[in-house]
Each structure stands twice: as C-alpha cells, then as structure tokens.
Design brief:
Residues 357-443 form the RNase H type-1 domain. The chain is mostly helical. The chain is built from 21 helices and four strands. Strand 3 (382-386), helix 19 and strand 4 (423-427) form a beta-alpha-beta unit.
Amino acid sequence: MHYVCWKDLCLPRDHGRLGFHDQIMWRGALRARLAWATLNDSNSLLHRVMQAKYGLDMWNNSRIPKFSTAWKIIREGAEALSTVIRWRVGNGRGIHILNDCWILDRKLARWPTFVNIEEVENAMVSDLLDGNQNWVAARVERFFGKIMAARILDIDTVSSEGPDLPELSRACFGSSLSSIIYREKFVPSEYQFGWLLKLKLHPREKFHWFRLLQNAIPTNAWLSRRGLMANCDCPWGCNVEETVDHYTTRCSKLLEVFGILGKWGFLVPTFSSLGDVLEMMPVLADTNPLLAIIFCYSVYQVWRARNDLKHTGHHRPASIMAATVLSLLPKLTRKPILLQWGIHQPSRLPTLQSWDPFQAELSAAAAIREVLQGWMLDMEGIIVEGDCANAIKWLQQLNDRNFKGHFNFTGPDLDFFLDFKQVIFQHIPPECNKPADFCANLATFGNFVYSDVNVMGFPLSLLQLLRADNFST
C-alpha cells in the first residue's frame, strides 16, 4: 500500500480507490453540519448568541477584528456548505450572480451557457430586481439572452423584502449532510476497471488486484529498476524477467495451477499479456463471473506462494493452491435458495416458484427425457436415485393402479419411463452418492452432458468417484 500515494487512496471506491477519508477535506464537511444547524435551529443557544454577536451572514467576507473560535469553525463549515445549497432570492444583496447557486442546482460559473460576462462579473442578484423585488425583464434579457431569461423570470422571489434564504439543493435521503458535501469535492468519473467491483472479491485478493492495477506490485523487475535487486528473473525458474505481464499470464507455476483446475473441471482461460486480461475481464464479469473470480484468486495464490518461496525457501504445492482457490469461492448457502435453483442446470430444469424438495425430485426425474438416447433403451434397465424419500416412494408407486395419489397430481409427464425394460427408483442420502453430489456442484458452473467417460474434458475427479463407487458396491 505504501507504493500508492495517499491522495489516490482517499478517492472514493467508485473511482477505483480505497475510499479512505482525507481528514483535511473531511473537516469542512463535518463543520458544515454545525453551520447548517446554526442557521436553521433558531431556538438553540448557539443560534441566538451568534446572531446577536456576528449576525448570520456566514458568507460575508468582511473582516471582523476579533472573533471567537466557534465563529471561525462555523465560517469554515459555511464555505463547505456552499457547494450543496441553493439560494432563495429575497433582496438579492447576498447572492453573487456567477459564484452562487440560485438557478436550479449549479453555479453559473460552472454552467456552460451564454452569459454577458462583462455585465455580471461582479454583479449581485439585487441588480436584477426593482424596488418591489420584481425582476427587471429587460435587464435580465440583456444579461442572459431570451432562453435563460425566461427561466430566471419564472423564479419566485420572497414576497416580503428580507435577506436571501439558503436551502439544500438536494434531499439527504440515505446519506448524511456531511457525506454529501464530502462527495461534492470529487469530480464524477467512470472507473475503467469497474469489473473488479462487480466480482466482489475477498479483501486480500481485492487489495492485491488494486495494487496490481496501480502498478504497485514489487516484482523482481520492478525492484531491479529501482536498484533494490540485481536479479530480475522469475523465482519459479521460468528464466525470464518477472514482470506484471509475466506473473499474471505466462508464469509456469500459474499455468500449473490452471492445469490442475482444468483436470477438476474448471477450465480457466489463459492470456498472453495483462492487456488481454484487462480486455476480457469486463466480459467475464458479465457472462461468467465465477470464472473471473477463479482467475483472480489463482493469480493471488501464486503470488503469495512466490513470496513464501523467496523469503522462506518453501512454498505450498500447486494442488494446494488450486484447492485454496476453490475454497474461497462464494458459498451457495449465502445466496437465496431460489437463486441456487435458478442456475442453469445440465438438463435445463425449470425454475420453481418455491423450494419444494418433492417437486424438485420429480422435475429432475422428468429431465431425463431431454438426454435420453436410443442405446439407453437397449440396456437392461435404469436406476434413478434421489435423496427425497417421499418423492422416491411416490415414483415407486407409478405402476400401482390402486395408488390414488397420481390422480391428484399435476406435474411433469413421466410416461417415457415405460420405454425402459426396467426402472428402479432408489432412495440414497447425499453423503452416500458422491458422484451425484459432484455433478450437482459442477452444474452450478454451467450446462454439461457426459455420455461416456472417454469423452474429451471428462473431469478426472468425477471418474475417480465413479471408480470408488463401483468398487464399494
């Protein structure tokens, strides 16, 4: 973090920074709350004392020989408050035409419009009013032109002659007055790495990628350029210079971790440079965010192991890194159950309106029709296993004519089971059927259909579970 300047760290999070509060900038925003309370709470002791001693024109720049610390604090708060207030026109003597906000929510000095600058540069709004506090239409039109003059003439003035009244230019819904004023100090901008915010990484991984995007990762090449290290090669033995491009895309250890994840069924994309990564990450964040998260976590785990190797001489195996990456993925239990069910399943199960294990089991059984092939009907039979005892018992009674439960049920069509020579419905707890549990977890990452264990891309872990399940029986 000490490689990034403090000014950048204090920018808001939607600007791609860490959102630390700059105490110098935050001081005025906090004091603005006190100034606004002093203006509006006429029954407070502070209001009565300040009004009697100094008046309540906090924006008057006339010098006072001696003033209290309280008035100094209020004046500083009033300066910060000026960015979020709009003046309601009274006599117009305290409103500067260019530098105060009195039309809509922006000062004319920051509003690109056609204004006769020579006429209004040092003028006050009172110069546009007559003795009865009505707008002088000819003068307003001469200063601002017809279009802007029409908008100004629609502004109502205070009916009785009196001072100008400040009011907030926006409502404080969901935010405090101090936070609104603090946010006004930053120019709105669109963060070019907004995908990093969408992924919602864990704090350590997110901070690592923040440093990476700020070019604040102390790679060997980075340290060598600053004269802090003589050898700039990759510590993993790649025999090339360790740059940000290298360790995020082409490092041998990173590719080894990707290879292990691929064997486990997680095909992580590879890139040739960091530029390609930054170009594809916005696409992955929208289409397949889980894959983007796996990539970001893998880069961090390899970097962490690289530091262990460099400073201690020991590091974790690549398989442990890959397992750690998967353990950090968002847990399904943190999401609403309906969102879990709405994930695209391999057999395209319909989205249920409510979570009902009985209906879920029947829908899963009906989904077999979509992957049914001719050779399956030539086999001796089919075994359908499920962990809902009521659903399996109901399915077992499909051919029982005395069972009246089928007549009161409206659901999927299960007549295709009659095409099989034999159908066995069996109740098995999830912990006793690890291959099915593995497929259920794999389905959360996308659709898949495996008709043969010899097909390309068949997960090695699933094959091992099938072998273990076969030997156990």
